[in-house]
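Homework help board

Subject: predicted structure for assignment chain

Our instructor gave us this sequence and asked us to write out the predicted structure in token form, then describe one feature. I got the tokens but I'm not sure how to describe them. Can anyone check?
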Amino acid sequence: MHPMVKPALRQAWRDLQYVQCGVAPAHAVVVGPVDTTTGSLLGLLDGTRGIGLLREEARALGVPDERLEGLLARLAAAGLLDDTTAGDPAVEPVRRRPGALDRLRADLASMSVVHREPGGAIRRLATRAGTRVQVRGAGRVGAAVAALLSAAGVGRVEVRDGGCVEPWDVTPGGLPAESVGERRDVSARGLVSRAAPGTGTRSATGQRRAGPGGGRAEPVLSLVVVAPRDGLEAYAPDPVTADRWVETGTPHLFAGVLEATGVVGPLVLPGGTACARCVDLHRTDRDPAWPRLTAQWRSGRRRPGPAGDVALASAVAGLAAAHALAFLDGEEPASAGARWEVASPLLAWRSEQVEPHADCRCGAAVGAEQQQATMAG
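My token output:
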């Protein structure tokens, strides 16, 4: 172990005895009381020394081994200590990939603040490299989400869409202007590759479903991001289309822009949180005309193009990608069982909790009742 006080957290002395690590309240920690010797020890924790060398230098300062170990334990418990040589075997492929750590250095710094244990950031980055995510849609939102996930270290990002790139699909963080006229899936594949340069042809190394005869098969989908070019299917998801993900137990997240309104969520954890059919049933309860309206909106009438300005689409893509990454890293983001909406011109994000519906067959309502009964007991 080569311990290091997490460099992403800026250090400043509050007074002569207390050091504050971090600026923003969400992750800042105050350490103290700190005497001159302890302050010198903190300066040695820069990741360049192993435990043996640290002990030698601490003894030279008159600090016994037990005090050093106690300081390290306190810093680790406070989430302030990282390990530059985390020895998990899954991490080694990430370290050996040319240029990968340099490209992802800012991501690792941010992840080290979120994941408190020493070496937690790079271990989760290694987990990301073993995941497979499918993005449904290669418009302004979907293409940008795919690029962001690839750039953030997700090992395999697939994009599903048809047709060819139109001029209004182009965004600075998504499909480039030179891709107009190309097949959307082909152009999106190139975008995903360019977002993670130097990785070559990437494939996930996580759990795989056995192929015919027990042979090698596709890695299991970790997440589907539903980001259709027509934002209606994100704002009002079709339950029939989404049922297959619920049936296969595949987590899925909706994101899109419709008529100058952006939406992220819900993140559906099959059997655990409300699904698209729950959303549809709740809306029908509030508005009996809802099924009649959606049937007309989903009719085959051809539309000239989607409505969604580039800045709003980019904001939705960024939030959707961040929620997807939080889920892949083992957290339950705020979109789990909830929808986040933002509308122009005020652009104030608001959230709406979506509860499982008692009449939905997804099973989330039963699970919620059992959880409430357990808590009551």
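Reply (TA_rk): Your tokens look well-formed. For the description, you could write something like this. Residues 3-104 form a domain with the Outer Surface Protein A; domain 3 fold (CATH 3.90.930.60). That's the kind of observation they're looking for.
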